[in-house]
Amino acid sequence: MAFEPGQRGQLVSQINVTPLVDVMLVLLLIFMVTAPIIQQGVQVTLPRVKAQALPGKEQQFIVSVTRNNGLYLNDTHMTRDELTGKLRAISKERPDREVFIRADHSVAYGEVVSTMAAIKAAGIDNVGLVTEMPAAGEQPSAPNEHARGTSGP
């Protein structure tokens, strides 16, 4: 007793998957187009150093120095004076806050040091540098240096 599509009064038990495939292809296309747009943050090429990651406790303040010496606090573009003023207000609320510097590997050392000086002038003593771990088989930029310190100008 097989059901055949031509019989009267009988149910047809076939599933049409064409609409499902159409919906899935449209969703795939939407995700492929929007994924690069969703990427957030300031683009910086970090130096590669072997160092242990630091545990995060709360929202971090990250100062980014881009290749063309642009300065960002988290995702907000600002000048060095604006950065110092904003961090001064933050340090009045919480003097123990940490600020991390993400500098592009092609930025001059002097720019990174003057950014550290602007952060220190705001009253924040805990300053760290953000780096990336080298890929397997790749030589690090600086051998076995820790990427965090509180020293500076």
Folded structure, characterized:
This protein has helices at 18-38, 80-93, 109-121; strands spanning 61-65, 71-73, 76-77, 98-103, 126-129. The chain has a single domain, classed as Nucleotidyltransferase, domain 5. A hairpin with a 5-residue loop joins strand 1 and strand 2. The chain has a 5-stranded mixed β-sheet, covered by helices on one side. It has 153 residues and is an alpha/beta fold. The longest helix is centred in the N-terminal third of the chain and has 21 residues, at 18-38. 14% of the residues are buried. The chain is elongated, with a radius of gyration of 27 Å. It is built from 3 helices and 5 strands.
User: Helix-strand pattern, N to C?
Assistant: HEEEHEHE
* End-to-end gap: 89 Å
β-strand amount: 5-15%
Nearest-integer average pLDDT: 77
Using brief descriptors, characterize the structure shown.
five-stranded mixed β-sheet, Nucleotidyltransferase, domain 5, 5 strands, 31% helix, 153 residues, disordered C terminus
Brief summary of the model shown:
By secondary structure, the protein is α/β, with parallel strands linked by helices. 31% of the residues lie in helices and 13% in strands. The protein is elongated and about 85 Å long.
